[in-house]
Design goal:
Helix 1 packs parallel to helix 5 and helix 3 crosses helix 5. Helix 1 links the parallel strand 1 and strand 2. By secondary structure, this protein is an alpha/beta fold. The radius of gyration is 14 Å and the shape is globular.
Length: 144
């Protein structure tokens, strides 16, 4: 299963850009993960168009909250669906996702009940995906 991460706008904050770079580099060893930055401007159609044919998961504060082990189990469940070739994680811009986009997604996940700056959300998602793959391989990154 391929993982596609679609984010509105490139990180402008240096710490976020560095975090994205670091976790993308780490993830290469585990799974085909691709990250694409799309132009913002309040139009969510680019997220939908680019994720067409993918299993869509919108990241939104109103979504389902998963702990890390549940996140790992959910990724494994998706991987075990043979017809599922690609999962797309959608990260909105500063204004988040409108209801129309959320309605067209297969799932909505929340990384936190707190409102999170979208660049930080991208770093958190990448770190959690890295954590998931180390859990699946039994590597000592995650601690309970």
């Amino acid at each position: 299963m391929k993982i596609l991460i679609l984010a509105i706008g490139k990180p402008k904050l240096s710490y976020a850009a560095e975090g994205v770079q670091e976790y993308c580099k780490r993830l290469r060893h585990y799974s085909p993960v691709s990250l694409e930055y799309l132009k913002g401007g309040g139009d969510f159609s680019s997220l939908l168009a680019r994720s067409e044919g993918s299993y869509r998961i919108a990241l939104d504060e109103r979504g389902c909250q998963l702990d890390t082990i549940s996140f790992s189990k959910r990724i494994t469940q998706l991987e075990n669906r043979p017809q599922l070739k690609k999962v797309a994680f959608l990260i909105g811009g500063a204004d988040g996702h409108p209801p129309e986009l959320r309605e067209r997604c297969d799932e909505i996940w929340s990384l936190s009940r707190l409102t999170m700056q979208h660049e930080l959300a991208l770093v958190v998602l990448l770190e959690q995906l890295y954590r998931v793959f180390t859990i699946k391989r039994g590597e000592p990154y995650h601690r309970e």
